[in-house]
Amino acid sequence: MTSEPADQMAFQPTRDVAGLTRHGGGAGHPRTGIISNSRSHRNRTRGAEAMVVPADTPNLLYRGPRTLPALAQALREFRDAGIELLIVDGGDGTVRDVLTCARGIFGAAMPRLAVVPSGKTNALALDLGIPPEWRVQDALAANTRGSFRTRASVEILRDDAQEPELCGFLWGAGAFVRATELAQRTHKAGAFNSFAVGISLFWGVAQTLFGGHANEWRAGEAMRLQLDGGKAAAETLYILFSSTLERLPLRLKPFGHERAGLKLLAVDAPPRNLARAVPALLRGSEAPWLRERGYRHHDVRSFTVTLDGGFILDGELYEGGTMTVRQGTPLEFVTP
β-strand 170-174 against 166-168: which pairing, if any? Predict the structure, then answer.
């Protein structure tokens, strides 16, 4: 990881709580593992343990690892205990780190998942219809009711690797990197979730619209892009943005109509007719004139891209290079 925003993986030390392995006497309660990020936004302001550990819940395993190796150890303990439900208490960055690590530990036997949204950004929770005030008790009750939705993650594979290096839900390069940096600055100013997205979007568009020809936003980034194993092409793109989420913050629809699967938006640099195109794109327009002016929508199973600059996955900046971005195996999430 190349940087660590405040609500990324930086957990309290692993410890046990009373009744940690009460596997007997818990009829109706699945064996549940909780990974809690004590430095996620809400947990830092309210205190994590009082909120996420119901004292009277049987079959509950709780861990708050501070490092990625400790996270891996916690997930191995959960696997060996035979958990059926994995609850992630944190923001999008926490979910990314847990999924990335869990994929290599659980393999095809991934447990059902639930998200308690406590980070600065919670795009996955929003997409799943999970309210900000959701708690562990709510997730357990929804699991008992059988309320589930599936989402496939975005998987990142470097070079010729067969297994993903990262798993997340929102991938972007080019102007998306700069927009994310703006969003992180708005976090420091006290703006979170959809409000932060709106501010970052406004300033990003303003920088592009009113910048000169040498403006770095307008100039774009050289990339080499190959869709679904087709022919690779060298391009200069303003933004390359991809996700498997169906609903984004502020009801923005940069990929067009809401739908499942891996979706991709590629915008040529410098962007043309931006003042007209941005409102149309964000409303979900797929009008032919957008493609004619270099705003292209794609539905893909995978794409391969070579970047000189970095890329963002769920709010974290990673080094560029050659990588394949693909749709992962569908995961089952508990929802209200």
Answer: unpaired
